User: Fold this.
Amino acid sequence: MERVTDVLVRWEAGEPGALDELITVTYDQLRIIARARMRGERRNHTLQPSALVHELYKKLSRLADLSLANRAAFYALSSKIMRNILIDYARSRNGPEGPGNKVWVSFSKVENVNPGNSVDFLELDSALLKLATSYPDHARLVELKFFGGMTIDEMAELTSLSTATVERRWTFARAWLFRELTERNAIE
Assistant:
């Protein structure tokens, strides 16, 4: 953990080669996050967890003037970037060249979220953006949990909230998203 924090500080300071070292020391954890994100994808998905980490590396190499408080903040940023990569990928699949090629995400992969249900990745993103307009802190917790694979304790540490507050907001956000996604599918 200390090594990650040390390398993170050097990367933020612009030290050459620090990002490469940061990816090296965090690669296993980043692959775990990527694998968790890829579990809900279709079986013939052309993007693999390793490729998702490599895409993350490309995006991170273009960032400047970062200020990340700790390793948890780095993993949160990384999971958000992975989410954006997957959303961009899903949008390109649903574009003119691939209509109807929806990317499905399984809610059964996230603890306590209506097991057995799955939702289109783009519908989830749209619902999450809607949640963020009224409840930005709740939406951030969903990103950290769903896309970052963080535990309640890790989210509490990162957000400087109590675990009880994180649990309440997570429960609310989960219920809100379930209602939003259920209503959307009922309309269609």
Summary: Strands lie at 104-106, 118-120. The longest helix spans residues 163-187. The chain has two domains: 2-93, 104-187.
